[in-house]
Amino acid sequence: MIGVTGATGQLGGLVIEELLKRVSPGEIVALVRDEAKARPLADKGVAVRLADYDKPETLAPAFEGLDKLLLISGSEVGRRGPQHEAVIKAAEEAGVGELVYTSLYQLGEWTGERATILSREHQATEDALAASSLNVTLLRNSWYFENYAQSLQMGAEHGSFIGANVDAPVAAAPRSDYAEAAAIVLTREGHTGKTYELAGDDGFTMPELAEIASEASGKTIAYNPLPQEAYAKALEQVGLPTPVAEMLAASDASIGEGVLAPGSKDLSTLLGRPTTPVETSVRQLFS
């Protein structure tokens, strides 16, 4: 049995879709906070179990009988440390055979001034996994192309988009590529104990992304880099909570130091094909 946390989320839902291409629905367990949202999965024959990070008593029963568990990192920045630790403890208690965790690309590079709350939470989780009795596989995911989708759409509307990364390349790929890789790891043997640095084959800078988006949208889109503090303030002004705005700005500034630069081919190796080119993702966004 294969369990997937956050199964109704953006990445989790795609992982379930990929698993359904490879194994029978009865071998998949969707682990969710809201069982009602998972009704479409249940209709496909996928088992649905309540597993709430903030209710540790729900976790171990939900993990019973799992050979493999995909822990998709939580979405609540600042709370993920204790949430992930609760999952790890419950997985040990339930006797889960292997835990696969979606961590952060080139985590070892996010040090010193480049460290952010995002990287610190991932590091804390990796440390907890290393100290556990579990068999572990790490999927260190780079940025999702979708992280830039809203900025590009606003850029097409207003003529520009902003960020704190001046000109460092970003080895991003669409969520679907990462989901396919996760499903491959979950359904094939030989991955236990490995750490995969998953990223797009090629990188792109923000000015290059603006040029690609301009061509795809038929509109002139510019990229305007800002200092980290100014970018955080701009994100607050469009409605993001201060902690989230500060985290995104700090992460973008670290990306500007090259922490998401291309280099690893682990993703395309797992997929058995090149990663999806950014031009393809941009065209799909504006189609």
UniProtKB/TrEMBL annotation:
**What InterPro entries does UniProt report for this protein, alphabetically?**
NAD(P)-bd_dom_sf, NmrA-like, NmrA-type_oxidoreductase
User: Pfam families from the entry?
Assistant: NmrA
**Residue limits of the NmrA-like domain?**
2-257
CDD domains named in the record = TMR_SDR_a (cd05269)
Name the UniProt record assigns to this protein: SDR family oxidoreductase
Organism lineage:
Bacteria, Pseudomonadati, Pseudomonadota, Alphaproteobacteria, Rhodobacterales
